[in-house]
Structures are given as C-alpha cells and as structure tokens.
Amino acid sequence: MPPAIEVQALAKSFGAQRVLAGVDLSIEAGESVVIIGRSGCGKSILLKHLIGLMSPDAGAVRIEGVDIARLNERALLEVRRKFGMLFQSAALFDSMTVAENVGFGLRREPGLSAAERARRVDEALALVDLRGTQGKKPAELSGGMRKRVGLARAIVYRPGIVLYDEPTTGLDPIVADSIDQLIVRVRDQLRVTSVVVTHDMRSVQRVGQRILLLHQGRIYTSGTPETIFNSTDPVVHRFVHGISDPKEIQI
Ligand SMILES: Nc1ncnc2c1ncn2[C@@H]1O[C@H](COP(=O)(O)OP(=O)(O)OP(=O)(O)O)[C@@H](O)[C@H]1O
Ligand SMILES: [Mg+2]
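That is the input. Now the predicted structure with adenosine-5'-triphosphate docked in place:
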C-alpha cells in the first residue's frame, strides 16, 4: 500500500520569500504525526498543500499514491473528500445551530435521508462528547466546545485523513488535554491518519507517534517524542524547551 501522504522536494515561494525549500516527508496510513516549527516557518502552508488548497512551485504531493499537483479541479475535489480539517478558528457558521454546522460536513453526500443525516450528526457529536447540544448556536458555546463542534464537522463524513491546525491554541490546559484525548480517540476509533500542527509541547507528547520539525523550509529532523525532547541538537533543543537564541533577540 502506498503511504497515506508522501511529499517530495516540495517548494513554495511568495515573491522573493522562499517558504518551503524542498520538504520531504512520508506518513503511513493510520499514523499520527505532529508538525512543529517556529511561527511563520510554513506549517499552515504545508497543510494547505496536502489538501490541495495550494499548488507547489516544484515537487510532488501524493495522497494514497496519486500526485495531486497534477489534477484538475474536479479530481481534486474527490481527493479533498478523503480529508477532514479542523481549522484554528474552528470556522463555524454563527447563524447555524450545532447540528446544522456539523451536518454541513455532509453536504458532499446529498443522497442521505434526513433521518440518516441526523443519525450521522448525533454519532459525530457523541464522539466529541457533545451529545444534546444539537440546537445550540456557536455563540452559546465556549471556545473548547466550538473546537469540538469543528472536530465533529471534520469527521462526520468519515474521512481517512484528518488535519488539525493548532487545535489547542488558546484553550486552558484541561480543555487542551480533552481535545488531545479526542484526537487520539478519533485516530483509534475511526482509524484515521492524523497530522497535527501545534505549538503546544504537551500536545506533542500526547498525540504524536512521530514528530517532524520544520525549519528553514525543510524537515530538519524527525523522530519519536522521546528522541526529539532529548535531542542535543541546538535547533531542536531550543525549540522544544522554548529557549530563545541570544543572537536573535532584538529589543
Ligand atoms: N497567501 C500568502 N501570500 C503570501 N505570503 C504568505 C501567504 N500565506 C502565508 N504567507 C507567508 O508564508 C510564511 C509561512 O506562513 P504559515 O502561515 O505557513 O506559517 P506557520 O508556520 O503556520 O506560522 P504560525 O505558527 O504562526 O501559524 C509566512 O511568512 C507568511 O507571511
Ligand atoms: Mg499556522
């Protein structure tokens, strides 16, 4: 079986700014990988390439063996159906109820009966421990609950791959822990491949089977949480322990 995701020599620039300078990575089906790296180093840009929202200047992005950089828009839509994405802001529709927001994830399956749609929405909400909130509006929910609704919407159509862009940013440590537990639950119960971008070092340890550090446009290093946290490489060590480089401080 080909890897779920395979990226080769991926390059992307914006004008004179080179953001991705030859990213190589491979993620097996069912694996959960965490991508870390400095703010602005290109993590969100990399996720957008995986899901086909951006196309590379050079290099290949293969999803289950298919190079998506060479697909037309229609074929790309098919590939996107394999993905669920939890956006940083949760990106819910304020005017819709929780059930309508989650059900929006089912728009790609127009053939479903109303009863089947409701059942699938209930099932997704149960998985994120939000049973009974169907009729609420996003404004009535806390930030952590909104993230969970966003997660229910990302998984309601049973994607094989789920991408999470900073799922715990801005949440208190207890809620962040519960989101991490949900990510693990979704991975294990739905057997999805997970790619989590995060700055939260506790999340890294809780959800990552393998950690990739993006640095200067490339995957600088890859390893288990243990090897990354114990690394003596100065770039890795400073990043995971939050130590700034005195040469970079400008006040
Ligand atoms: N559409 C765009 N046009 C031009 N430049 C962009 C665009 N999107 C992102 N960039 C630039 O690319 C770089 C990488 O952005 P990206 O959003 O991937 O960073 P990031 O690693 O996700 O950072 P953070 O951790 O702060 O979310 C940034 O310098 C950003 O300004
Ligand atoms: Mg980002």
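The beta strands are 5-14, 17-27, 32-36, 58-63, 66-67, 83-86, 161-165, 193-197, 210-215, 218-223.
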